[in-house]
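Observation: inputs received (chain + glutamine).
Thought: call the complex predictor directly.
Action: predict_structure
Action Input:
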Amino acid sequence: MINLPPSRLPGIGTTIFTVMSALAAEQKAINLSQGFPDFDPDSRLINGLVRATQSGKNQYAPMSGLPRLRQGVAELTQRKYQRTVNPETEVTITSGATEALFNAIATLVRPGDEVIILDPAYDSYAPAILLNGGIPVSIPLKFPEYSLPWEAIHQASNSNTRAILLNSPHNPTGSVIGADDIQNLIDWTQKYPAWIISDEVYEHIIFDQLQHHSILKYPELADRAMVISSFGKTFHVTGWKTGYCIAPAELTAEFRKIHQFNTFCSPTPLQEALADALEDSSMVDGLSSFYQAKRNQFLNLMKDSRFKSLKTSGTYFQLMDYSEISDLSDVDFCKWLTVEHKVAAIPVSVFYANQEDNKIIRFCFAKKEDTLREAAERLCKI
Ligand code: PMP
Ligand code: GLN
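Observation:
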């Protein structure tokens, strides 16, 4: 037996989403852990996919994505954010936001470069930075609002800072950036010659009349940003693993060099069906109110429980404080909850570089009414 080469990611195990979903299945628990809807997408997506596969759309798509899907993304960007992007040179379709994030990081990061990420951070960011030789510089969001800590961000920034990676609406916390953050970000970019990677996969899920401050709305930011989104969240098709990156042409050219050797192209029939779906703006425009009703239903069902809910302004996640119920670590509490009460959730500490444990767990409310009712009934008994 020859020796294994040293691990590229020592200390990194299987993701919490896989761990908790497997435990939920084993325990026959209601799975409010990994973020995915338990209901079907609009039948127009299913029909579009059937139509595409039956009409011969089964071979490779163009490397950068189906032209009419890129055109649809450009039109959506114009309509939502008044930003004109060139679908030929500035939009690339990827196999999920995960691939887009990896390629964007690979496009920008060189060995020794520092990338600022805000904890609790989505779990793919730090490994992607490390695999590209970069150094993740983890800074905690301000607890308990999970707002951006601008002073700490400035203190952590220096001439090695290649990029800041932002995520709004934010997974796992449901916090969103505001107009003041945009001004702070503009000030920051004037001080440091660094790039912005903006993970906006929940861009269309924002509540209480708040506006999503896409980086694409602000020309001075968009000119130095790679903005990433995912059709999985927008059309209730997380398993379709299709997303995109919008970036200035020079960056997109480099991004595509990586994309072409990573996946080459994303599945053709899925892109066809998504291009059809984008033609009807009501699906995107109805998403916030659809999920706001689910959030409200879940909060209402949980109001007499011993869990304390935190504020959720976007995404389909609800954080809850369980400190009145248990002293267990959040990881152990989630396992206990799954095994003993048959409801699975995600511990938030796993998204912190220092494993900070504030006794807070994340529930996904992208679920049918009955699922939420049954889960809340179990949780309220604790
Ligand atoms: N970023 C965030 C914040 C996410 O929550 C997710 C997945 N849910 C992704 C990226 C990855 O998206 P995709 O499934 O399209 O790869
Ligand atoms: N983004 C989803 C979540 O936060 C999970 C995606 C995955 O399993 N990789 O739950």
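Thought: report the result.
Final Answer: The first strand starts at residue 30 and ends at 31. The two ends are 52 Å apart (CA to CA).
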